[in-house]
Amino acid sequence: MNYSSARARVDLVVFGEFFIDLIFYKLPRAPKLGEEVKTQYFAEFPGGGLATTALVAAGLGTSTAVVSRIGKEAQSNQSWQKLVRSGIFVGACEFSAKFLTAMTVFAAYDGDRMMITYDTINRSLRKLLARPAVRGQLHKAKHLHLACAVSPPQAWTPAIRRLRSQGLTISLDVGWNPEVLQSPRLPALLRECDFVFPNEIEARTMTGEKSVERAARKLAQWVRVPVVKLGHDGCIVVQDEKALRMKSIHVHVVDATGAGDAFNGGFLHGYLSGWSLEDSLRAANICGAIATTRPGGPSGVVTRGKLLELMKRI
Predict the structure, then answer these.
(1) Residues 6+ apart with CB under 8 A from 39
(2) pLDDT, tens digit, 9 for 90 and up, residues 34-83
(3) What is the pLDDT of residues 175-215, one digit of tens each?
(4) Which domain holds residue 272?
(5) Other CB atoms closer than 10 Å to residue 253's CB: what's the count?
(6) Buried b / exposed e across 69-96, counting CB within 10 Å, b at 16+?
(7) 34: left (phi > 0), else alpha (psi -120 to 50), else beta?
(8) Domain assignment of residue 67, yes or no
């Protein structure tokens, strides 16, 4: 493998946690403790916000790099190779002989899913920001997307502030990590970000607000453009004190895994392509919706041509 591509100039760097996702779907019922449920449907995919966001953005034509820590055993794994073969630059990643690659097992049922995760390798991930290869990759980028639990937020804030001062625009998707979402130190980190991408529950948890619009408006006091994902109802964004709701397209949901991260990839592609906020939101909603039509977020990547066609419907 040739990892010298870390020096390549890219528009987007996605920093975060890489997982191998093992997905059991179309279950006949949700399993209970002490019970075995069998299914004929199984898939393995690159997982986590990093993989799905990067694959969607790169699939649409955005030059993309990822920065993560994986176990050396995974370099020949099909999930990791999917990123490598997609043209995503991986040369700034750290390959560990000490820890195994993070892994999540999914049980998808009735449009939702439950998960079990092993991710010891992702501890102290922020230390990767100090690696010379990572600093070189970020120096050549336009935008940094953080797809990880920035815990504790105050430990991340100085590094993110420095990167922003170097001219990078920055976005963040914490995911469902209550200790971070409820941290009183999170607003200081959000003030260093241009975009944040919580879902409705995460937005209300971050702000303590009961309604999604009030949550979005409160987030707008901390981050330039908060984008709150509403699933099949699309999204809501607040910019210049104005709230904008954008509808999505209707699809048959097979597996919701990675839909929010696919949304992020679509939005960032639009943003880095110079599209308007409205068109970036249309792209995001479509990418998020298409990701639910197949098992595993990365399997539902839409082409740029198909995206442009679908955007005309919203």
Answers:
(1) 24, 25, 26, 27, 28
(2) 999 999 999 888 988 999 999 999 999 999 999 999 999 988 899 999 99
(3) 999 999 999 999 999 999 999 999 999 999 999 999 999 99
(4) 14-29+38-304
(5) 17
(6) bbbeebbeeebbebbbebebbbbbbebe
(7) left
(8) yes
Q: How far is CA 91 from CA 6, 80, 136, 306, in A?
A: 4, 13, 11, 30
Tell me if 17 sits within 8 A of 48, measured CB to CB. yes
Does residue 6 lie within any of the structural domains?
no
Tokens of 22: 């093992």
CB–CB of 247/237 below 8 Å?
no
Helix axes 200-207, 212-219, angle to 10 degrees: 60
Which among 145, 155, 175 has a CA at the least distance from the CA of 272? Answer: 145
Residues 181, 214 contacting (CB under 8 angstroms): no
Distance from C-alpha of 28 to C-alpha of 21, rounded to nearest angstrom: 20
Helix (H) or strand (E) holding 219: helix 212-219
Give how many domains the chain has, as a whole number. 1
pLDDT band at 4 (very low <50, low <70, confident <90, very high): very low
- Cα of first residue to Cα of last residue in the chain, in angstroms, is 42
Q: For residue 165, is pLDDT > 70?
A: yes
User: Considering the domain boundaries, does residue 2 fall inside one?
Assistant: no
Query: Is there a domain that residue 130 lies in?
Result: yes
| Strand partners of residue 246 | 235
User: What confidence score (pLDDT) does residue 6 get?
Assistant: 45
Rounded Cα distance between 110 and 124, Å, is 35
CB 182 within 8 A of CB 208: no
Q: Is the pLDDT of residue 224 over 50?
A: yes
Alpha carbons 202 and 76: distance in angstroms, whole number? 35
CATH of the domain at 131: 3.40.1190.20
For the full predicted model, state whether its pTM sits above 0.85.
yes
